[in-house]
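This section describes the prediction task in plain terms. A model, or a person checking by hand, is given the sequence of a single protein chain and must write out its three-dimensional structure as a string of tokens. No templates, partner chains or ligands are provided. The sample shown here is typical of the held-out split.
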Amino acid sequence: LSPHAKRLMFSSWKGWSDVDYYYDDLTDADSTLRPLYTDMEAITTLIMLDDRFFIFTNLDAPRYRLFSATYDRPERENWVEVIPQRESILEEVDVIGGRLVTKSLRHASSVLEMFTLTGEPIHELPTPDLGTIYGPYGEYDGGELFFYFTSFNEPGTIYRYDFAGDSTEVWARIDAGVDVSNLEVKQVWYPSKDGT
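The expected answer:
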């Protein structure tokens, strides 16, 4: 369902990498199901807004990328690339606070980034260390987002990012009963036997 309940989306899965998406315009009483994304074998998720939708896919991009399209011109030739495939693996995309918020895997560590809805980079959200992020979570027009972070030296912690103040704070933390203040997490690089 789109944010203001104007459009309803349906998906039909035919295996783990073959999905068709259809939508219905709820503002039109005579509307019928119309195809949005069909007959393309790729792992794909659609993110609906009222005026457009985003296509998060590995179609011709094994590390994933993001497109946008409009409901009146959903065909592949009308897609606009918003975030191209990059060196990092794009793992999640959502619209939070009127921005695109992405989670990527860069050198085995999670990274959160913000973009405008047209794909212009805003900034990377700081994380306490190298580690794994679950999320982000938030409302498409909200003023905050949440993410769960864990690492070798940090028990599971939920962080809250405030859009207005551009600040991140601890929202909730697991008390592991262990002092980890003297632990350090570092990532080091060495050449492999084949020189890579």
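For orientation: The two ends are 47 Å apart (CA to CA).
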